[in-house]
């Protein structure tokens, strides 16, 4: 056997051995899992996506808002911290005729997170909506102060801190039926008073509630609502009888007119609002709204969940002028029977898409005709930065 024959035989043996080992090690490759990409859902507006594996669409939205407020109407007062210098270490309260308070900023930072879902069913569109707020605020600390054995009612004043997380909206809708946490239909059905920030200075209460409501929508812009509500805090229902709201509205290209009534089951009193909106031109719109309650005596101030103004009646008038796509001017005047008055005006400017800057001026007149009235004129201002997404 020569060298050439030996090499050829060795190569053949190695090839056979390799083939045998390869045959023993054959493993079937696993099939790759199919990848389901997130699909755009355009049936309910911009920003919706399909939840993978379902026909339900979802959307996440919200805003970040920074408010800077000043003045007697919107600012804060705070204890001069030097008055208490060393108190924490010694435990001895300060001496002197009185404590000093300074005017200061009122600042607030809010993050509002919203979720939306929607899908079609044989009974109509099934929707959900939530809004949760996380907030850093300048609250008013009401801790009583001891000074020379005299308990003071005033606290430290401005006290910057985190607020509690709040669930402002969380409801389910099926067709015209709505169930869950909302704001009362007495406010939402006709719309909030105006496009100013401080639209409720003389009607501050009556917002949050759980409810079961049904909105009927007919042709030609006609709609109607009935809402059974629980109220909140002092205005929470005290029996199985709910607060009740009913309303009707007609909306067209020129504007809308509507009326809504609310019955407070605790006090067995009611309130009514009527409103008209007019689109004068494409740029200019006006609204006028009036309210009346069944018991407006000042001894019953803010007893009625649906009427936190003073006296029998209240009125609002306001408008918006759209200078261009980025800039609008908004103004509102409100006045009630107790001669309370609030005037607010602002300019809302969209600096870049999604970022709006709004400076607003506010004038408020209180009267002594209602409990704790101060019969004084106060001014204030607020600068708001809001990034919506």
Strand order of the largest sheet: 2-5-6-10-11-12-13-14-15-16-17-18-19-20-21-22
How many discrete structural domains? 2
CATH superfamily of the largest domain: Porin
The biggest beta sheet reads: 16 strands, antiparallel, barrel
CATH architecture title of the largest domain:
Beta Barrel
Q: What structural class is derived from the secondary structure elements?
A: mainly beta
Number of strands: 22
| Rg over alpha carbons | 32 Å
Instruction: State the helix count.
Output: 3
> What is the strand content?
over 45%
Q: What name does CATH use for the topology of the largest domain?
A: Porin
Organism: Phyllobacterium leguminum
Protein name: Porin
Keywords: Cell outer membrane, Ion transport, Membrane, Porin, Signal, Transmembrane, Transmembrane beta strand, Transport
Subcellular location: Cell outer membrane
